[in-house]
């Protein structure tokens, strides 16, 4: 009640003087939508007919391209009679809502549809009665009136563009936000109710257009899942010719309804993306959807800046919000594609046209200047993913029964094993292609990759490419400028002329010419050299998985030596982590014939056969077999990372034993996705052999892990850090009963409010399932080395849930962790980011106590352009996958030195949040849990898909469906949210805060209300809450919402508090 009264008080008395009022009249209508209308642009793409028919052709049990949907439509006024025209390229998105900081926006919604919907905005301030989201938040009376707009009714939502939620200092003048219906948000959005909201800094707009911008476009990349639509039954009846025979649970039927689209248009049919060469273009991008929605939006032929960094690819996930700036170059028709290779072939493409409007050139013409000429051939080789035949980590043979590696390396009647015929790029000395260039010791680590192509700003690159393979191939670069005639991507232009650049036939040769003008090179914020890549793009999926990919390095002018090495850098390494899917290789049939002993018995559709061909590798090496990752103590080391693949390729590349700097942030784990590239700067300070591994659990067990070695090559000064601070923690591993959902009240009320009666596969025990309670092991803090008295958690620590204690350290500290294993099997405690005397983490046996020492030098703390305090994770590494899922993980918070204590009247709060799908099938205690909690343990089949799914607990700090308690603060508090991600390929989490935005440091201050986290993400988000209420905090990924990865945080009225020291 106190929140209700305060909200009312603020609403009536706390309204500031707004710059202007804006009104939008938006109706919710039901309409038929065509995902691939027959416009002229449809003819632009060469597509796989089978894929096109799967998604677009209707039939007895196929809906096809046309669906009934609910859409937001703008009207001229409150009569809701005349609609406002919108740009055709918006597709099915709602109208663009724009606001500058200081504006007050009234959104009048009228529901013309047949069921209730709402309007919920991101990134602006609103009171509870204007949130437009339904969930248990203790509101009553008029504060509930926004929760549902019933058919035929109207409601006015009031939004405030406040300073607290304005774009950050380093943000663009205008940034991307969104709005959508939020009764059952995933189902409402899948039904069509989503649109863009553009939020601008004060004074950025002129007549509703951003100043100094010629064109603006909004694009949403999404696999729209029509199976989740409220209108699925209607669509089956209307568009399937034999609706009575349709099985809506059939997997092929469901796949046919997942529409890979840009703004609701698939297979290149989005109309209207047109601009002039030299136009200043602003792109507002966002993603939406599910775990499959791992997008890489690539603008062919163009270079963009995003957050002041140069790129040609923007990674998008569900509710990810980005904007990018581009000066359009190179007249012609260019593809805007998702380079997630599964999405590319499923139709997630559009086209934009750059026209020559005779505008003055903004870029110098450097064609033919400072030419660097490369001679590269594509040729067949036999590639062995692990030449030693041994798992370097376990010292066991790769075909040892029950080992992780045997799945991939066992050769037999229907198994290929660890060697495959592949096509690779190799460099030659000249155009005769007779003398292949030998690789030196510094290039040994490149493995399967092609040669490094390097250039500086101002250079012209010529690549003479000779195809020695049996299929048409090409070279498509990233990070350089090229004309349509030099593009290596194969798609049919309007005249259907076959371009030599995009389709080099076997035994043919083509010379590409690319340039490196200033507009594609590193910006002032970028590192000296940018990591880029090149690949064959006749059929990108098949070509890349066949092996045709290599690294590029694009550098600032004057930064390279004559041999291409970066000045003032001792070592450069190129890493390409990917799941090479040999099932997609052009040479699969050859490999079956060559390496299986009964090729006629091979079923290429068999799931086990397909899994055996998914090679989790770095540069084509698995299980520690990559050579050449050697460096000296104190070296200046640059790592160039890049990746390609599909939604499985969510990577957290962890460098144990050392940290690096990237974009002003100090980290030890780099997140990579399809078409992502990163440059990391490292200065190793500890001798030893360390791991470079992917933290994504399936990738780690699948072999995506290598060793790198740091040696003392010359006399180095010792560690100059004075570890003056001493901190000692007493931590034990303790086995407990853990309940993911101690109360189901919130969950039941949510479903009641949504008017849904749904079962819960994760929490309902049923006949065979385990339910919500599991035996687990957790880190617990004790008062001293006797380990008799646990430290009782304070109110501000209640939110930690399953996490271990929130350990703190400052730069210059030495942290001693006295660890006692009170559990029944060996465990350990290992922290990210810290410096240790040894690269080995020794297991602690049951009943034993061991002391672990973590030093906190400067390189363990925040970067110069990072938050003052940054989080790291600590966990057990005896078996880091099973130990993690069994429960052993906690936060370590490292802060900069505080030479003096500063009087700070504001209260500082810290909340650590782990977003993780706890896979209880991988827990050490699975058998115990079946015996203890299943009603019929003898009938449980651990390999049953439904049983496996029931044990994947979508949790925040180990709690589900609103059960995480203790996230309580007051208006005006300074709040640090330390968000962490770990886990598997499903663990992409887009963390959304209702009611408030946060700031984060990224070589500059940025603002958002959604942050993306993945395995190995550790990030500080800073918030000063201003609006009282109980607010939803959740992952925006569709399946994760429905599975319970949501809770609430409470903002209480401000109180007069005594000041203190911080």
Characterise this structure.
With 1062 residues, the chain is mainly beta. The protein folds into 3 domains: 19-355, Immunoglobulin-like (Sandwich), CATH 2.60.40; 371-711, Immunoglobulin-like (Sandwich), CATH 2.60.40.420; 726-1052, Immunoglobulin-like, CATH 2.60.40. A 6-stranded mixed β-sheet has the order 12-11-14-19-16-17. A hairpin with a 2-residue loop joins strand 9 and strand 10 (209-210). The two termini are 33 Å apart. The model is unreliable at 1-18, 40-44, 899-905 and 1057-1062 (pLDDT under 50). Its cofactor is Cu(2+). GO terms for molecular function: copper ion binding; ferroxidase activity; glutathione peroxidase activity; phospholipid-hydroperoxide glutathione peroxidase activity; protein-folding chaperone binding. It catalyses: 4 nitric oxide + O2 + 2 H2O = 4 nitrite + 4 H(+); a hydroperoxide + 2 glutathione = an alcohol + glutathione disulfide + H2O; 2 glutathione + H2O2 = glutathione disulfide + 2 H2O; 4 Cu(+) + O2 + 4 H(+) = 4 Cu(2+) + 2 H2O.
- The computed structural class is mainly beta
Please give the alpha-carbon distance between the first and last residues: 33 Å
Any idea of the CATH class of the largest domain? Mainly Beta
Instruction: Say what the CATH topology of the largest domain is.
Output: Immunoglobulin-like
* Multimeric organization: single chain
Low-confidence spans? 1-18, 40-44, 899-905, 1057-1062
The total count of strands amounts to 64
What portion of residues belong to β-strands? 35-45%
> CATH superfamily of the largest domain, called what?
Cupredoxins -  blue copper proteins
Q: Name the shape in a single word.
A: globular
The main sheet orders its strands as: 12-11-14-19-16-17
């Amino acid at each position: 009640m106190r929140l209700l009264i305060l909200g009312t008080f603020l609403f009536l008395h706390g309204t500031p003087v707004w710059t202007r009022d804006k009104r939008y009249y938006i109706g919710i209508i039901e309409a038929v939508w065509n995902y691939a209308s027959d416009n002229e642009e449809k003819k632009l793409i060469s597509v796989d007919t089978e894929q096109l028919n799967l998604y677009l052709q209707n039939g007895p049990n196929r809906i096809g391209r046309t669906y009934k949907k609910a859409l937001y439509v703008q009207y001229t006024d409150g009569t809701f009679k005349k609609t406002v025209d919108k740009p055709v390229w918006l597709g099915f998105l709602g109208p663009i809502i724009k606001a500058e900081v200081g504006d007050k926006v009234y959104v009048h919604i009228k529901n013309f549809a047949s069921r209730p919907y709402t309007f919920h905005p991101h990134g602006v301030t609103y009171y509870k009665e204007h949130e437009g989201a339904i969930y248990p938040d203790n509101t009553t009376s008029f504060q509930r009136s926004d929760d549902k707009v019933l058919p035929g009714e109207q409601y006015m939502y009031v939004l405030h563009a406040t300073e607290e939620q304005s774009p950050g200092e380093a943000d663009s003048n205008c940034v991307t936000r969104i709005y959508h219906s939020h009764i059952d948000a995933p189902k409402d959005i899948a039904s069509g109710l989503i649109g863009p909201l553009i939020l601008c800094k004060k004074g950025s707009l002129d007549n509703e257009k951003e100043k100094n911008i010629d064109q603006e476009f909004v694009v949403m990349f999404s696999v729209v899942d029509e199976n989740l639509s409220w209108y699925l039954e209607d669509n089956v009846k209307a568009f399937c010719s034999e609706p009575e025979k349709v099985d809506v649970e059939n997997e092929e039927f469901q796949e046919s309804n997942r529409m890979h689209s840009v703004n609701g248009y698939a297979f290149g049919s989005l109309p209207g993306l047109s601009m002039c060469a030299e136009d200043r273009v602003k792109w507002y991008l966002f993603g939406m959807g599910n775990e499959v929605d791992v997008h890489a939006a690539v603008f062919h032929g163009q270079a963009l800046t995003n957050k002041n960094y140069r790129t040609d690819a923007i990674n998008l996930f569900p509710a990810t919000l980005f904007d990018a700036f581009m000066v359009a170059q190179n007249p012609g028709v260019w593809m805007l594609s998702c380079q997630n290779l599964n999405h590319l072939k499923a139709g997630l493409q559009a086209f934009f046209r750059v026209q020559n409007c005779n505008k003055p050139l903004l870029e110098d013409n450097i064609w033919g200047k400072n030419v660097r000429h490369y001679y590269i051939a594509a040729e067949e080789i036999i590639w062995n993913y692990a030449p030693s035949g041994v798992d370097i980590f376990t010292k066991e043979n790769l075909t040892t029964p029950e080992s992780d590696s045997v799945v991939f390396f066992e050769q037999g009647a229907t198994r290929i094993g660890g060697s495959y015929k592949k096509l690779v790029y190799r460099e030659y000395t000249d155009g005769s292609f007779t003398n292949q260039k030998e690789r030196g010791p510094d290039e040994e680590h490149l493995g399967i990759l092609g040669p490094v192509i390097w250039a500086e700003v101002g250079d012209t690159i010529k690549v003479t490419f000779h195809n020695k393979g049996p299929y048409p191939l090409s070279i498509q670069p990233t990070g350089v400028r090229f004309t349509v005639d030099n593009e290596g991507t194969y798609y049919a232009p309007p005249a259907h002329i076959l371009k030599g650049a995009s389709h080099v036939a076997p035994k043919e040769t083509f010379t590409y010419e690319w340039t490196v003008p200033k507009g594609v090179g590193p910006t002032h914020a970028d590192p000296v050299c940018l990591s880029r890549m090149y690949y064959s793009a006749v059929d990108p999926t098949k070509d890349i998985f066949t092996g045709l990919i290599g690294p590029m390095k694009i550098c600032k002018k004057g930064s390279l030596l004559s041999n291409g090495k970066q000045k003032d850098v001792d070592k450069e390494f190129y890493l390409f982590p990917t799941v090479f899917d040999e099932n997609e290789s052009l040479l699969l049939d050859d490999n079956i014939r060559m390496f299986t002993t009964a090729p006629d018995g091979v079923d290429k559709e068999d799931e086990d056969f397909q899994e055996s061909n998914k090679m989790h590798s770095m540069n084509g090496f698995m299980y520690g077999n990559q050579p050449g990752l050697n460096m000296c103590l104190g070296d200046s080391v640059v790592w160039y990372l890049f990746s390609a693949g599909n939604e499985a390729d969510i990577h957290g590349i962890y460098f144990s034993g050392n940290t690096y700097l990237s974009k002003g942030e100090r980290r030890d784990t780099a997140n990579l996705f399809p078409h992502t590239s990163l440059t990391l700067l490292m200065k190793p300070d500890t001798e030893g052999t360390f791991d470079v591994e992917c933290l994504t659990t399936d990738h780690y067990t699948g072999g995506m892990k290598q060793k790198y070695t740091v040696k003392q090559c010359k006399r180095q000064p010792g560690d100059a850090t004075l570890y003056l601070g001493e901190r000692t923690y007493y931590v034990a591993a303790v086995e407990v009963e853990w309940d993911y959902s101690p109360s189901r009240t919130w969950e039941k009320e949510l479903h009641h409010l949504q008017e849904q009666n749904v079962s819960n596969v994760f929490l309902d025990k049923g006949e065979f399932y385990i339910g919500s309670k599991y035996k687990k092991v957790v880190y617990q803090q004790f008062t001293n080395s006797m380990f008799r008295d646990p430290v009782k958690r304070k109110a501000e620590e209640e939110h930690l849930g399953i996490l271990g204690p929130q350990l703190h350290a400052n730069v210059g500290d030495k942290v001693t962790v006295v660890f006692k294993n009170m559990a029944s099997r060996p465990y350990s405690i290992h922290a990210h980011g810290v410096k240790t005397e040894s690269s080995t983490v020794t297991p602690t046996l049951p009943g034993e106590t061991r002391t672990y020492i973590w030093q906190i030098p400067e390189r363990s703390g925040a970067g110069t352009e990072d938050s003052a305090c940054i989080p790291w994770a600590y966990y057990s590494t005896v078996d880091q996958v099973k130990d993690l899922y069994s429960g052993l993980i906690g936060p370590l918070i490292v802060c900069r030195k505080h030479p003096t204590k500063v009087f700070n009247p504001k209260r500082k709060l810290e909340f650590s949040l782990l977003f993780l799908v706890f896979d209880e099938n991988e827990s050490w205690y699975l058998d115990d849990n079946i015996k203890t909690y299943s009603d019929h343990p003898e009938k449980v089949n651990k390999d049953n898909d439904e049983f496996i799914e029931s044990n994947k607990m979508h949790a925040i700090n180990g709690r589900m469906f609103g059960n995480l308690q203790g996230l309580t603060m007051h208006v005006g508090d300074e709040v640090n949210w330390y968000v962490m991600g770990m886990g598997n390929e499903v663990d992409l989490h887009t963390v959304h805060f209702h009611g408030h935005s946060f700031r984060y440091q990224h070589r500059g201050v940025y603002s958002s209300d959604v942050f993306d986290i993945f395995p190995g993400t550790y990030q500080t988000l800073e918030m000063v809450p201003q609006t009282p209420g109980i607010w939803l905090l959740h992952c925006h990924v569709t399946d994760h919402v429905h599975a319970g990865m949501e809770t609430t945080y409470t903002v209480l009225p401000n109180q007069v508090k005594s000041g203190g020291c911080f």
